[in-house]
Structures are given as C-alpha cells and as structure tokens.
Amino acid sequence: MAESLLEIQRVLVMAHPKLPEAAQDASQIADYLQTLGFSTAHGLLYDTTLRKRLKEGEFDLLIALGGDGTVLRAGHLCAPTDVSILGINLGRFGFLTEVRQDQWKEVLPRLRSGDYWLEHRMMLHAEQWRAGELLGNWDVLNEIVVSRGHIVRPVHLVTYVDQRYLTTYVADGLIASTATGSTAYALAAGGPILPPELRNILLVPVAPHLSIDRAIILSEGSSVSIMVSTDHQAVLSPDGQVPIGLADGDRVEAYASDHTIRFLRFQDPGYFYRNLTPHMSQNPSTGNSR
Length: 290
What we know:
- This protein is α+β, with helices and mostly antiparallel strands.
- It has helices at residues 22-35, 48-55, 68-78, 104-107, 109-113, 185-188, 271-279, and strands at residues 2-3, 10-15, 39-44, 61-66, 84-89, 99-100, 117-130, 133-140, 143-148, 155-161, 164-171, 173-177, 202-206, 216-217, 224-229, 234-238, 244-246, 251-265.
- The chain has two domains: 2-116 and 266-286, Rossmann fold (3-Layer(aba) Sandwich), CATH 3.40.50; 123-258, Sandwich (Tumour Suppressor Smad4), CATH 2.60.200.
- Strands 1, 7, 8, 10, 11, 15 and 18 form a seven-stranded antiparallel β-sheet that branches. A six-stranded antiparallel β-sheet has the order 14-13-12-9-16-17, with no helix packed on it.
- The longest helix is centred in the first third of the chain and has 14 residues, at 22-35.
- The protein is elongated, with a radius of gyration of 20 Å.
- The two termini are 35 Å apart.
C-alpha cells in the first residue's frame, strides 16, 4: 500500500557498525541534510542513546546505511514507533534498500520537496508456547523458521491453518514468510516471489522428506500454528536472529502483526518488478555479477 506524504523535520542517520565507510557516510549525510533545513543526528545502528531517542519519538525518519540486513534491523526498531525508513545501500544486495551509495546527494533534496511516497509492508507476529505458557514473542519483517538444530535429522512439524489441521511436515524446517521475506530464505528454499504489498503468509518447507513439498500461500488474515514433534534438537529463528531452542510439544503461532514497516521510496511503484531481473542470478557473493 502506498501513502503519499509525511511531515519530515527530524532525521536520524544510522550506520552499520562493521562497515568502515558507513560511519563517515552517516556524518556526511547528516551534515548535508542540515544544509537542506532538517534537524539531524547520526551514529551507529546499535547506539543505545540514539535508539532510546528514536523510541521516544524524537525523529520522523531513519536513514539506514548498510545492506538488507541493516534495513531489517532498522525495521525492528522503527515499526513500533511508526518511524519511516530510507535505506542507502552499502551492502551487496539491496532488495530493501532504496538509494545507492553514490546517489544520496542527488536524491535527498527530494525529501524537502515532498517528491517521494511511502510503502507499507506487513510484519509477522510470532509466539512460542510451551504447556500453555507464553515463552516469547517477536515481530519480524522477513520470516520465522522452525527447523532442526545441529543434528542432521528431520523434525516433525504438525501444522494448522486457522485452527484447522493442514499437514505434518517431515523436513529440515518450515518457513512462515511475509511477502517481503519471499525474496529471502523462502526464495532460496524454492518458494514463489510475492509482491511486497501483499498481506499473506507464505509457507515453504525446507528439504521435506516424503511430505508436502510445495509452497502454500495463505489467505490474507490467516494464522498458522506449528507444533514441534521431535526427540532431538529443534529451534525457532525469527528474522535470522540467534536461534531459540524448542522442546518436543512446543507450539509456534504466527499471524499478521499490528505493526507495519513504512519504507520511503523515490522510485515509482513499479520498481519491484523492474529490479527483479538485475537481482536474480546476480548474487554478488558468488562473483557472478562481475
């Protein structure tokens, strides 16, 4: 869903802490935005003081410098406070970023003229339950993955959709993805690519053994429940974060979050399809794009 304008006065510029040039770029961008009349602050993505200020509502826009992973972490930070995100790509891919590293001085004046639009993307809310007790909950932009741990043996994943039994997957794992996540792990596991504005959950099994091996797109508003049946290690991974251990009988629930992520876009709304071809078969980590 696209939204036209946002009142932007206060901008926070945050950089990936492990990219040497990112901190310097953040400082330069913040200084440049001040010449355009914006109030700014800048620092590293995990700066606790800046994160606290963002959560307290001091900023209208977060500019994230890094790759898709940086934008993903920025999304976790911004969604609860409804702060928009603009991603500047210092990484290798860029499904989520909007501006190239060498392009920011050219496009940032458009913030002042209002020449941009806002794109809303669904998040998933996930919960871990054990014997009727809620152990944890997360809001994710890409996906949750329920999977085996270090032991190379499949897990049994008893899966329900809207409280109705779907199937028991025997697999290395099961991905419950948003449309945004359809270009991440779900894509690598053979799932379809969904337009980013869709509010559907995508289920993709990972290395299924004699069980359903096709991805399933759930209706908008549907929920999924995944119960682990295993006598060895199983884990839950929300948006690629540190895995959480799951015990036999644990249940993971996932449904559309109350939070959405709001991306600031300069490209026209057809950008997603136009950028697919350059991204596909061009993974920079393989050297194929050279």
